[in-house]
Amino acid sequence: MPSPDQPRWEPSQERRELGAALRRLLDVVVRTSVAPAELSAATALVDELTARLASPPFEIDLSVAGDSFQAQMSVVGGLSHPAAPQLELVLDGESAQGVVVVGPVFQGGPGLVHGGVVALLIDHAMGCVAARPDRPSMTARLTLRYRKPTPLGVPLTVSARLDRVEGRKLHLAGTVTADGEVTVEADAIFLTLNDRNLKAVFGRTA
Fold first, then answer.
1. pLDDT > 70? residue 22
2. Rounded distance between C-alpha atoms, residue 189 and residue 144, angstroms
3. In 3-state terms, what secondary structure has residue 167?
4. What is the distance between the terminal CA atoms of the chain, rounded to a whole angstrom?
5. Which residues pair with 60 in a beta bridge?
């Protein structure tokens, strides 16, 4: 149980601005060609900043509201997250679509998005479709077909939809598209969570 004195998550514009600044920094760090002395100076500055920001961790709840920790610090799309690809999804019933430009932090082959990051984007989009307050669910299986390399630095359209429901199984499909061409196709099974699952995974029931 958290201590009564443990700080709570508070969203703010300052957190979002810090997240954006750190994402800009990471994009530069993976490409910089400055001299070793400059790298050492930068390391000292980062260590100083790390010490300055170090504090007791705040209490995290399970809310997924727009200003919650789960939303703002999401590893995909979280505005306050220091590395998250900024995928902005629009939900429409049992489907979702969004656009993201993936930068050099997530490079796999030269000029290409790492395949695992593509899987992250699709899984996130599918999760946003599958999981609702009245239908908590998690990925049980995710299968991807890499049809073409996915390029860095261009708008990627990530789409997901719920195809059918079989008991607790939710069958979803998704794609990533670049320049009008599908680079990745995916299908997945999400499993709706019962009270026993929720208790085991999150320590709570519905």
1. yes
2. 12
3. coil
4. 19
5. none
Let me know if 57 is exposed, middle or buried by CB neighbors in 10 A (0-12, 13-18, 19+).
Answer: exposed
Give the rounded distance of the alpha carbon of 135 from its chain centre.
20
Whether the pTM exceeds 0.85: the reply is yes
Closest CA to 181 of 143, 146, 141, 130: 146
The pairing of beta strand 88-92 with beta strand 155-166: unpaired
- DSSP 8-class letter at 56: P
Q: How many CB atoms neighbour CB 139 within 10 A? A: 17
Q: Token pair 């989009």 is at which residue? A: 125
- pLDDT bin (cut points 50, 70, 90) of residue 60 is confident
Whether pLDDT at 204 is above 70: no
SS3 at position 176: strand
* Structure confidence at residue 122 (pLDDT): 98
Q: Which amino acid is at 29?
A: V
Pairing of strands 95-101, 88-92: antiparallel
Residue with tokens 């209490």: 59
